[in-house]
Amino acid sequence: MATTCYPPAASGLTYNPYAPRNVWNRAMNLLAALFATIAVLPLVVVTLYVLYKGGGAITPAIFTELPPAPGLSEPMGMGNAIIGTAMVTGGAALVAIPVGVGGGIYLAEVARKGWFAQSIRFGVNVLAGVPSIICGLFIYALVVNTRILWGESFSALAGSLALAVLMLPTIVKTTDEGLKLVPQELRMGALGIGASRFVTITRVVLPAAVSPIATGVVLGIARAAGETAPLIFTALFSPFWPDWASGWGLLAPTATLSVQIYNFGIMPFEPQVQLAWAASFILVVMILAANLLARWLAHFSAS
Question: Largest CB tally within 10 Å, which of 16, 102, 149, 242?
Fold first, then answer.
């Protein structure tokens, strides 16, 4: 005798918004959205406030004049700090990028496993969490206090070395992880046609991972550009233009945007406080642009 199969009741297939599990799911979604909003809210508020306070102080003289002496209001500029920030950050990038990318290549392609590679990865993770002021004190004791750089103490080059130490963990970790994303078949194919390991890495693996590596480099530069504590102990500050006669300005104290914010923000004079807000505006725009570039590179890599 044949049996007849009946479909389940329609009530079992319809969505019941009042079911306990659906009510609980909506409540948890709302709670997660609330926590996400609270987490992002400080960033939005701080960014908008800095843009509001500093945007009105931006004038052409900001980029072409020197800052005024305490108590004076003219001229209102910080061209020396903008140039100094570019010098110090650029010098740090020149030091950190080759070392960081090379270290990441070694970890991902040469010594993937073993106690030595694991020790380096552990050290990189620890260095990523070290406070920036400790890096500044390290370079102060190693470079500034010993006057090892051609007899000079505080200098833009010392500041670059301090920022390079901060950039290294980000670049090493992103390079290591980016190279691990390259399919193993590409390496095997290159080695199978007779290419050496060096040719395989430089001609096949690195071009395939250039986007994540570039993302890590940009993120490292963005982090270093906003640091203040290491530069107080190394690059110090200068109210003048870089001394181009002294090693193209690298062997003398130099002004930077972050240190200028620190110095001028605590002064009781309104012109200096306005310059501090203007410097904050420029620095925030630079860091936002660098992070957007990093996001674009990551998206370009994913696509």
Answer: 242
Q: What is the mean pLDDT of residues 52-81?
A: 81
- Whether 96 has a pLDDT exceeding 90, the answer reads yes
- Residue type present at position 82: I
What's the pLDDT band for 66 if we cut at 50, 70, 90? confident
Contacts of 154 (CB under 8 A, 6+ apart): 144, 234, 235, 236, 253
How many helices and strands (H and E) does the chain possess? 12, 0
- What is the share, in percent, of the chain residues with pLDDT greater than 70? 92
List, in order, residues 6 or more apart from 84 with CB less than 8 Å away. Answer: 156, 235, 238, 242, 249, 254, 255, 256, 257
Residue type, 178: G
Phi, psi of 13 (to 5 degrees): -105, -10
Q: ∠ at Cα 301 (300, 303), nearest 5°? A: 65
DSSP class per residue in 197-248: HHHIIIIIIHHHTHHHHHHHHHHHHHHHHT--HHHHHTT---SS---TTTGG
Structure tokens at 199: 């040719």
Global pTM value: 0.81
Kindly give, in sequence order, each residue whose CB lies less than 8 Å from that of residue 187, ignoring residues fewer than 6 positions away.
200, 204, 205
What secondary structure, in 3-state letters, does 126-179 show?
HHHCCCHHHHHHHHHHHHHCCCCECCECCCHHHHHHHHHHHHHHHHHHHHHHHH
- Positive or negative, the CA dihedral 205, 93, 228, 86 is negative
